[in-house]
Each structure stands twice: as structure tokens, then as C-alpha cells.
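Q: What structure does this chain adopt?
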Amino acid sequence: MIWDIINSLLQLIISWPVAIVVLGLVFREPISDFLRRIKSGRAFGVEFNAALRQADINTDMIKPKTTPGTEVANSTELVSHLAFERIYNRTYGTQLLLLKSLQQKKVDGKMDFTPADYYAEYLRRGGSPMYQMRDYVGFLVKLELIEYEAAEDPNQLGITEYGTKFLDYLAAQYGVNYTHRNL
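A:
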């Protein structure tokens, strides 16, 4: 009888830490990604706050949907400005630099750095390697700020008219400092 209780207790003591270690190994990448994104926290009372990953953001809610012919000029401008602010709040500083570089490429026909260089800078500044190059560029493509010039080749990108309007809006609202952001 006593041996059954001791045996059950030993199984509980041994199996619980082993299960935690196994779960830690299985979910190592998501856990480390979460730990890198923590903005604030507490400890045993829990309560942590982590930044959203850009890949988790629903881009349909950022870019406005308008019905042609139903908006007044001022309301269209207001909707655009709100959309630009939402996009700006969700865009990394290195993505803004990439957009600025693509805008310059449109003007003078050359680009000093490739999109891969901007992605490498994003990683260097502490961005998550789980957020891959295709996601980094794809976010801007989804928002119609940039487009592929050749079959989804990340080195063949061009800025769209909407992307140019976005950068013009940022320059008017924030001056030259709009690209000075983390990541």
C-alpha cells in the first residue's frame, strides 16, 4: 500500500519536469520569438505584453475599402490619411527605408541596395528570423505599396502610385524623420 503511494508520487515528480522540457524543446522557436517581442511583463502574477508580429496583422483592416462614386473628396482624403497612419504604425523602419529607396529608383533608375539588404538590416536590428524575407516584402505587396516587376522576384520590386502617396503623406506629416524607427 505505501509502496503504491511512493511509486505514484515518484511518477508524478519525474514525469512533470520531463513533460515541461519536452514541450520547451518542441515549441522552442515560438517561445523564443515571443520572448524577443516582450514589451513589458511581470513574473509569477503573470501579465505579459508582447508586440504583434507583422505577419499576424490582418491587412484587410489596414487598407481602406471605398465604393467608387460614394465618397466626398474630404472624406476620401480623411480615409486615406487614416489608412496611411495605420500602415505607418505597422511598418518597420527598414521597410520604410526600402520604400524610400524604391521611390528614388523610380526617379533616377538606380538602387544602391537590394531588398535583401534591407531585410538583413531588419534582422541585424533584432527582427525575428521566423519572419522571412517573403513575409517582409509580402506585407508591403499586400498593402499595394510595392509590386513585383518580375514574377515574385524580391529583387525586382517597384513602388506603386499608392506607395508614393504614402511616402508623400509621411514626409508632409513627419518631415524627414519618419524613417527613424526600430526594426
